[in-house]
Amino acid sequence: MENPSSSERWNRAGIDDSMLAMFDASETKDAHQDALDDRITFLDAVRASSIVPEHGKPPTSKIYGAIFHMLRTGKSLELIVGSYKLLVDLDKRFPRVYLSGTDDSRSSSNSSSKLVVVKEAWSPIIDCPDNAHAVGEAGDKRSGEPLDPSSFHVLIEELTEIFSETKFQAASIEPLRNMLLFQYLVIVFEDDFLPRNATLNWSMQRESLLSLLLGSRKINYKGLMKDCMAIICQLSQILQSELSNHLELQESSESKLSKNCHSALSLALLGVLKDTCVSIEKLLVMIMDLDMARKKANIEGHTTRADSPRTPLIDIILDELAYYKDSVPVFLKIFSEPKWKLEIVVQYLWKYITKPSVRTRKSNDYTEDSTFVGALKCFSNKTSTKSLIKKIGVDVVQFLLAHGFQAQLSILSKGNADDNIAGNKEGGVSALVDLCHTFISAFDNLRSTDEHMEILSIGKEALFTAATIISMKS
Amino acid sequence: MDMNDPLDFEVEDALLKSPPINNKRKKIIGLDDLLQDHYREQDKLLEKGNKKANTKAKKKKSSYDDKDSKEAKLTRILKAFGEEQEIPLWGVKVFGDQKAFPPLEFPDLGSCNLLQSFLNNKLNSVVELTEDKGDIFLEGLLVNGWLSKLAFLCGHVEKPVAIWAFNTMLYSSKEELRRSSSDFWCAILSSEREVDRFPFKIDWFPEYTDLRRALDIFGFLFTFSSSAEPNNLDSDTEGPPQNIRSWIRFITACCLIRSKKAIFSAVEAEEIVEIIICLFLDRQFQGLLVLLNDCMEAIVNYFTDQEWCSSCENIAKFIACRVSKDLNCIQTVECISEASSRSKQLRSAVAYQTLFTCFDGVNSGEEILRSLTAINFKDKSCDFFKMYIHLVLIENWVLSNSLIEDNPVIYEMFCRYLQHCSTLISATNLRSYASKVNETTFLFFTLDLVTV
Q1: Is B212 contained in some domain?
Q2: What residues does each domain of chain A span?
Q3: d(CA A229, CA A241)
Q4: What does the alpha-carbon distance between residue B292 and residue B223 come to, in Å, rounded to a whole number?
Q5: Which of B79, B231, B286, B399 should we substitute to test contact with A (largest number of A Cβ atoms within 10 Å)?
Q6: What is the ipTM of this complex?
């Protein structure tokens, strides 16, 4: 312990060499159990030298690359899951971007914390998007190297293909590998974006990996977002259907996997599907947050010409949902983040609600209108409701109302919890009860406008919830 | 067959099918390569030794993308040699046949105030809730997320609803219901608003016996022993149902709320740790690594400091005598993460107790180390596989244990043992795992020691 810095340094180099030697050896004896053992040992060794010691150092880029390579090309479940877990743990332990001084009790004022960016840290995404890197076809050969934006898009496209197959199969390990890779990348985006976004400083936010990815000329931004929408809707459908029976049926069919491996895969798959869903929602939410930050910066005059304008994601989502009306229920069912869910519902409704004519509008009422409650109140106008039903169909209206109501409840109950602490209980409760009353009367209006409408189960459940809350709280 | 371009996927087939003449040729070519390999191994060892004095480590070029065809050939030969001593993979079947799932009973509408009180509401003319449709309606409330909203807003979870959701989570065959009910329970358990009490009243909590019964129905073999039965890994039992994921998740959520409610006693928690370690041993659980790891971390931290000392030892003893002394016992040690001091301690304890069962009649760690140092590796009868297992166990016992760091005797003996190994094992021993002992452990762990 006399001279830790120098001894650590040679120690470091020695460990790296040994570990890489192990990895190299494993590469040369493919398809052999020993190779697998060597790779598992390699992962253990990285963990033992970087994560376990109290003052462990992050692995070198080569080591990171080797682990990433395993995640991208691994053929055994053990290896894929192991490398995924290690990468996630390493990122937790050695963040690339973080806010210093967040432990401070007064950190609620963001001015005290400072954003720290570890520039030399390895990243699975290349952050200079227009760097001429010929990845493309030779993907397998360079799978230890970071992905560039176009390979990210390729990954998303692969996922869409996997899920669009009529019978989603558990006969190979590839879907699981791609899903875990995607989940890992979303974690990387998140760890990079969230602290940057917390600074509320556009110059930090615009430098986020996510912003660089979306701004890259190598991807078709709209196409990418549409693919993400497709994935989330496909996943929602897969998770609703009786996939578990599917998986068991597959067992009898021809498969290259052993029985044991197959049952391991089918046990893991449903969980991974659900997690992938959560990841894609996180990605969408982050992009919408980024859009909002950009909008704010634009108003304040902080954007430059380099911030090339991009269609806000919410507009793309609204267009997709307007075009494919069938996807409204599946999308709303799976998308749970209340703030953006409410925003999507409100904007969707307002797109079709006939705006009150200029003459009857009092200028000071106008700002209130564009809220969810404002939209609910519009249902009292029969002609407007009638045209709304005609435009989007009474089922879609029910879905929008019910999900919007649920999202608004979540936001209010979250606010209520804060109020309880602050001692402002009365205001919160009355707002809740008001919301429930407004919702019920909007639904009544909807029913009286279209007397033949079939009330969907989600509509009934929403009414039940509203009525129960009213009777409990008053 | 062209020997210069073996394709990776052919390696295995070639060994099985190729005629004897080919085999001979392989051996002739192979011996040269083996010699080379031998030298290379020795160089590596030398390099290791030199590093202590040498501050400048030679950078080894990472070239994991270039496949050396020579090495591929070598692998073939090594495999041919090693085949006489095939080492079984780790893996124990801890699940047998599932038992009949109990029927899912919906709560009686009369006993469930939530639904009952609505029957007289004037809105029921629209909702049309009736006594006989209560079950489907409740499922809808659950799946669409209303049930947890109501729990939070009304501040109350009634007993019939809690029991129904619990049983749905464990016994439903529909994935959507399983997941929603598991989400519901995890949400109400882990509401973080208040530290030491729930923000609302939960009228019913499951007991450990309920969870244990579920595991039994899933087919878990509580009395399994990996040493007694042959590991028939590909046998035709159906394995655990998908509900097992909810089970693990639920246990994790229960462990995290001890400050609000202690659902398990210390003895029960010990059994849960043992069960989780057993799940790690089943290859069918390889894909649930993250879930199992989280659960392990949660349950290990469930114990109070007082309980932990004896519980840790009990668990270790239980595991040590149940698991065979092959790769399975290594898996039991390595499945325990080193993320927290508690799990490190458990890892060390399991390794220690397993070592005890390997050596009959020893009383202390010192004695184990002493008898290990006495082994002569040059002896033809020396079992390198056993060696390898002992080495991994010792390493985990010593390096995961913070108490041993203060024990210079053990530490010195351990270092001496490592030196002993590195000087005696030569790469000429082609018996499988000899090289493994070299590679996996020394290359970096000896270096680790130097800095401690």
Answers
A1: yes
A2: 1-94, 121-128+143-335, 337-473
A3: 19
A4: 21
A5: B286
A6: 0.87
